[in-house]
Amino acid sequence: MLNTIWYRKGPLTWLLWPLSWLFSVIVRYRYRQYQQHPQRSYRSTLPVIIVGNIGIGGNGKTPVVLALCHYLRTQGYTPAVISRGYGGQAVGPLAVNDDMDTSLCGDEPLLIRRRTGCPVVICRRRPQAVEFVQKGYPECDVIIADDGMQHYQLARDIEICVVDAERQFGNCFCLPAGPLREPLSRLMSVDRIVANGGPIDHYDADVMALTPDDWRYVGSGQLVESVSMPSHGVALAGIGHPPRFYQTLRQMGIGIDECIEIGDHGRLTHEQIQKYHDQIVLMTEKDALKYSHQAGPKWYYLPVSAQLPDAFYSSILQQLERVYVA
Hints:
By secondary structure, the protein is α/β, with parallel strands linked by helices. The protein has helices spanning 2-6, 11-36, 61-74, 102-105, 107-116, 126-136, 242-251, 270-276, 285-288, 310-325, and strands at residues 48-52, 79-83, 94-95, 120-122, 142-146, 158-164, 192-196, 206-212, 216-217, 232-237, 255-261, 281-284, 299-302, 304-307. It starts with a helix and ends with a helix.
């Protein structure tokens, strides 16, 4: 119901508008306090790159984090990633390892750890995660924060805001009448805007394309042979914006028999796992992390990789160099 409200301006939108106005006043005040009193925020001895958004979920932050990790390593940097660990039970700080259960650390931190091999530390309080990295991984020379634009307890050197080009900013109102965590004016202060899937209105943004990789088996992680490639199946999407995954499948010529939406970071119930065990189930890489020991023989996942323009990487590299010089 909220999604319906957030992407149009109907009677309920205007009914909620006073609360949105109050919300925007509060978040503007918090940001102004961060700007005027930087000493109140924890300042790392390492450069901190925030990859976040001003809208509610499903914008494509994690692919940007993965791409940044890979790129910075090619440039001689040794990045570490910090995350709140949303969906996991751990309070932290906790270093994520390749065999950790997503119920403890959350799905996105585990995905980042497996795909990049970089140190990944989760903690509800991001300054503590940074301290953990600085003490436990002295070889790391840059920190990437997966989400956290609105967490001003942590000072940052570079801010990257990711926007879904399809949904953009909805009705442009802050919560609860709209999908924004901060007013649109906040975009004027970020270093780069990344538009996931195409250009966005009124803003100069780096356009990111998500390209599918090869299908893999959920149970083993092995590549699917060409003769076993799925042509149809049940689509499972426990992500912030499931239609993006469905659209990718259709563009690949894959038929969708049924859609299972379990909410962002959600899990199938035991009954659902039994129901779909012997069917062809197609899912995202993030979802697949939860079912490696419960997957049916025809459960597949589709990794994706972010393609970003050279200008984006060049800008980030130049800004990092300025931070080190300063």
